[in-house]
Design goal:
This protein has helices spanning 37-46, 64-72, 94-110, 139-160, 177-185, 198-203, 208-214, 229-238, 242-248, 261-269, 291-304; strands at residues 15-19, 51-53, 77-85, 115-120, 163-166, 193-197, 219-224, 226-227, 251-252, 275-279. The chain is α/β, with parallel strands linked by helices and 307 residues long.
Length: 307
């Protein structure tokens, strides 16, 4: 973001900044290498954030009363829940998918959240790299993905009052500029919005500012993340799956990576809508003492951008 010399940046009044368990190295509901949930809540508040996501279902308390008490006494509020879904498999996976979606959506609604982040399922295992299915969808699978996503979004809105935002993600079928555009062009704007994760989109070769400028009406939520271009070049050369790439440090602390977040936030502010921008620095696994200092520096950096 450019500013007049000596003057602070214009405030990004429509952007609500938060963070997530992901920025504390949390990928699973229960893992001995992750920080305990109380420590996460203490530290995310200490770092200066007011908004959080639920993270993997079961990491934070799933009892709404307990969760409300624990977040409120730290001055925290919940912006969204998150689910993974293999909707390109069609109606055959609906019942199993909905069972999980419903429990996450119910907790998100009870927590006062307004969004449900939906991440497409991986085509290869994010730990072992085992190929689980073809990395390219057939025409029939694309139709299933778009129609079932619309169905999910409609049900979530009608039953829980939440807005579905679909998260393009590395090693999934909604990843590159081409695939994101195909997905957006194939879904109803009234039902399906996008959670633009700046790091994942850059990881897959996309330009976040251009996406915001092209599909602005579809941007419903942001995840703020940066990629280390040198590590990404290694990852691509070696064909690493996403998990090992993260362990190598492909997602890095702002502002040392790409894309530059100032221009992304400025483009988002121009949309003239209220948007959450949730910091997510993938770093599983990590030293439990690493996240808090990074979170404090990141929050200070985002303030310097006006957010």
């Amino acid at each position: 973001m450019t500013t007049t010399a000596g003057n602070p940046p214009a405030p990004l009044s429509r952007i609500r900044i938060g963070s997530a368990p992901d920025s504390w190295g949390v990928w699973f509901a229960d893992d001995p290498r992750q920080v305990p949930w109380r420590r996460f809540l203490d530290e995310v508040a200490a770092a200066g954030y007011q908004w959080i996501e639920l993270g993997p279902y079961g990491y934070l308390p799933t009892d709404p009363v307990t969760l409300a008490e624990e977040t409120a006494r730290r001055g925290l509020k919940v912006s969204a829940g998150t689910v993974f879904a293999g909707l390109h498999h069609g109606s055959a996976v609906w019942d199993r998918t909905w069972e999980h979606v419903a429990e996450v959506a119910a907790l998100a609604r009870a927590s006062g959240a307004g969004h449900l982040v939906v991440i497409p399922s991986f085509w290869r295992d994010d730990k072992t790299g085992e190929v689980l299915e073809d990395s390219t969808l057939t025409a029939a699978q694309w139709r299933a993905l778009t129609s079932q996503t619309e169905r999910l979004a409609r049900e979530v809105r009608e039953r829980f009052g939440l807005r579905v935002v679909v998260h393009p993600h590395a090693d999934t079928h909604v990843d590159s500029e081409e695939n994101v555009a195909r997905f957006l062009d194939g879904t109803d704007p009234d039902l399906v919005s996008l959670c633009l994760d700046t790091g994942h989109y850059a990881y897959c070769g996309g330009d976040s500012v251009r996406l915001i400028e092209t599909y602005g009406e579809r941007i419903g939520y942001l995840h703020l993340k940066q990629v280390d271009p040198d590590v990404l070049a290694e990852v691509r050369a070696e064909g690493l799956p996403f998990g090992p790439a993260v362990a190598r440090g492909v997602m890095c602390e702002p502002p040392s990576g790409v894309p530059a977040l100032g221009p992304v936030l400025t483009a988002a502010q121009r949309l003239d809508v209220e948007l959450f921008a949730i910091v997510e620095q993938d770093m599983y696994p990590c030293d439990p003492d690493a996240p808090l200092p990074i979170a404090r520096r990141t929050r200070a950096f985002l303030r310097s951008c006006g957010a």
